[in-house]
Amino acid sequence: MTALTQDCFRALADPTRREILSLLSRQDMTIAQVAGHFDMTRAAVKKHLTVLEQAGLIQTHAEGRERINSFAPQGLRPAVDWLGHFDAFWDDRLTALKSAIEQDQTDA
Amino acid sequence: MTALTQDCFRALADPTRREILSLLSRQDMTIAQVAGHFDMTRAAVKKHLTVLEQAGLIQTHAEGRERINSFAPQGLRPAVDWLGHFDAFWDDRLTALKSAIEQDQTDA
DNA sequence: TTGACATGATACCTTTGGGTATCACACAAA
DNA sequence: TTTGTGTGATACCCAAAGGTATCATGTCAA
Question: Would the CB atoms of A89 and B71 count as touching at under 8 Å?
Answer without folding.
Answer: yes
